[in-house]
Amino acid sequence: MTPREAELTRQLEAALSALSGMEALRRENQLLRQKLDQITRRFFGVSSEQLPSNQLELVLALPEVEVEVRPGKIEPGPSLEKKTQRSVRKARVPEHLPVVEEVLEPEGVQAAPEQWRRIGEEVSEQLDYEPGRFFRRRLVRPRYVQRTEPDAAPVIAPLPERLLERSLPAPGLLAHILVPGLLAHILVSKYCDHLPLYRQERIYATRHGVELPRQTMARWVGLSADWLRPIYDMILTGVMAGGYVQVDETPVEYLDPGRGKTGQGYLWTCLRPGGDVVFRWETSRAAKCLDKLLPVDFSGVLQCDGYAAYGSFARRHPHPLTLAGCWAHVRRKFYEGRNESPLWAGWVLRQIQHLYRVEAVLRQNRAGPRLREALRSSESRMIVERLGRVLARMQPKTFPTSLLGEAIDFARGQWPRLLVFLTDGRVEIDNNQIENAIRPTALGKKTGYSSEKPGPGNAARSCTQ
User: Which of 66, 88, 139, 392 is deepest in the core (most CB within 10 A)?
Assistant: First the structure.
């Protein structure tokens, strides 16, 4: 090799090396743009993951694969189409409300009623409201002595039993949970209407002229948690009795006096589909929190997302647990990566759409576990198996750190869990029910738990603040 050829070879190698670096930078730039687009869509885009059918047809340019139901099975028919139903006009004033009747007599009739004869009436209704009010309950207990024994100890009636000894609130103020009272109002306002205690304190002071410190209300809320513990245990027993639950957790900021900032806690939620739901507050997201939520003797199916803590919990749980996956999470990831490869992602979304069409037929016909298992085995299984084969072929051809690559990796990593709903008719195709149960807490994250002002006695415990 001549010196000139060696020089040209070195220049060529340097150019190829620079070109390789430029390709890596281009790929990194593309990935960063995808991440930025994903974040922008999450904050400012449409939250729905539905794709119009005409858009999928345009992307795929493939004939639609219909989900056929064999003779003897449920016929989907036109039930899958959205029908517009004429809305029924509701009564302006709800019928269940109590009636306070007021008779309005004409002035002439009031002046000389004996000159008038009633021949009919006209009735009109209005919606009215009487706000709650505070009042003083004064207990007067007279002392008596016997006339025949004036030197004996006087007799006085005992005070009625109180929920809190030596407390200011009367029985109507701190009522039993089945009796309307201020405590029930505080609990409903805090946990249902997401009014933190410091806001309730201002409301009582400005509207009713009653100074009710939030530290006092915080103690009442803590006591109410102890009083309601038997009801919580009964609901938890009912949720666990079926052997199939859905579990999820959502972050909630809480006050931690002494740290100078809010802490990160989690509201763990457990739901029995078609039944009740229970919540438990923990200050961490560790797998050990599930030991406090799920009884040690629980066995059956646990449906969850892809968080690693559930797998760790299932491996060390003393009784057998089957983890079921969520197809909604799989669909969400492919929906986020659809712009990277519209053809592949669109095809996957179409297959998942077929699975949900089968589920729509089952829901409309109120199918039980056996019928759900039979129809899924005959219709949904072939779709899932075809999807699994295609994902296995797509994975080597997709960049691992791209949105589509992450979606494929997530789906294949969750694949054994995603198959559980095919063999167990009790299991739902996704855990959207528990996500719907958690959704109302999003309002409390902004207006309740994280907004409480720190103060004496306002310690972080069981979401009472």
Answer: 392
